[in-house]
Amino acid sequence: MSSAPAGLRIAVVGAGSSGLLLALMLQRQGHRVSLFERSGRLRTEGCGILLVKSGVEAVAAAAVPGLLDDLLAGGHPVQRFVFRNLRGDLIEASPAERQAGELPSLLIHRRAILDALWRHLDPAAFHGDHALVGWSQSEDGVEARFADGRQWTGDLLVGADGIFSRVAALLCPDRRLQYLGDRVWRGVVTDATFCTDGDFFVYARGRGIYANFFDLGPDGEGRGRTHWGFFQEEELPDDREARQRLLEEGVPAAALAKLPADAAAVIAATAPEGVVANWSFDIDPLPALVDGRVALIGDAAHAMSSSQARGMTAGLEDAVALAAQLAPGAAATPQLALQAYQEERLPVVHRYQERSRQVSHRTGRKRPPTRDTAATPVAEQHRKML
Length: 386
Hints:
By secondary structure, the chain is an alpha/beta fold. It is 32% helix and 28% strand. It is built from 13 helices and 19 strands. The protein has helices at 17-28, 53-61, 67-74, 110-120, 166-171, 240-247, 253-256, 261-268, 299-302, 311-326, 334-362, 371-374, 378-383, and strands at residues 9-13, 32-36, 48-51, 75-77, 80-85, 90-95, 106-109, 126-127, 132-137, 142-146, 151-154, 156-159, 177-190, 199-205, 208-218, 224-233, 275-283, 290-291, 294-296. Strand 15 (208-218) and strand 16 (224-233) form a beta hairpin. Helix 1 (17-28) runs parallel beside helix 4 (110-120) and helix 3 packs antiparallel against helix 4 (110-120). The longest helix is centred in the last third of the chain and has 29 residues, at 334-362. The N and C termini lie far apart (46 Å). Mean pLDDT is 90; it is low at 367-386.
């Protein structure tokens, strides 16, 4: 059998980190890539990310000249993890583990990651204002349909459209979001004193995280920045309008007051436009990541809690694995390339999801502690989250 040709027509739906990296790698292989995004532009909003070492290694494995250097320049290595209780008392402080010659885990703004990827992409591939409403496929190809009536026809379709993926909803109709029990606020504030020099602070409630903070380094004007996250356990309203109203609120004053004054002041000083709020969800492991000529990567394939800091990393790994299978000569047909991708990644992402949910269960989320968890020091529980 002849190998799959270069120049396949491939649609990537979703221009987040995994979609951008996949589109970039496929372009470099000679494929004709169309990157479709619901927004009219590249959306770089968001907050800080702890991009763990394996995520940085995935970017290195993409072997795009200059990309790793751009990523490393956009963030800085995490140096120390500090765990405190809600009174501010020190539980434990430990340096970030890193062997000589290893790539670091990075504290980095989401915007810096997307900007680094965008700089290396041929922008002609980007098509904004394309909201996917459906897709269909045959033995000869796949067709995508968009809300404004436009269509695309090609060889392969990849859903990189996040936790609320439309591609995944059609590929796996039983896919459902599972609420994890938290309303979560995240923000970035100009601050050069509270959290510095690569520090990552965790404030722990009984069995779970109440808040975290980490040093994001200077902005474009040289001002120090701190990322923070605040987690409040509560019931998810049944009414969608009520959910949205709650997401438009700031951190409740009574909840914020449970933090030490210096930590609470960092959150209180954040401008509203610097805050993002969400309800926390994951999904059950999917039985498949591929159906014929259609594949899933990133949160569309395996959305998980932040307890292991694996969400973005897993998506970047997906992109590298899928691009490798689609390299000219790697597989006999495009469909076999997707099947090989699934065989490689499905057990890996299932392990990530299961581990993430296990740690979430052990560290709160309105679930009673197990006997083993009750005997485990709180800092050890949270270290596993990082």
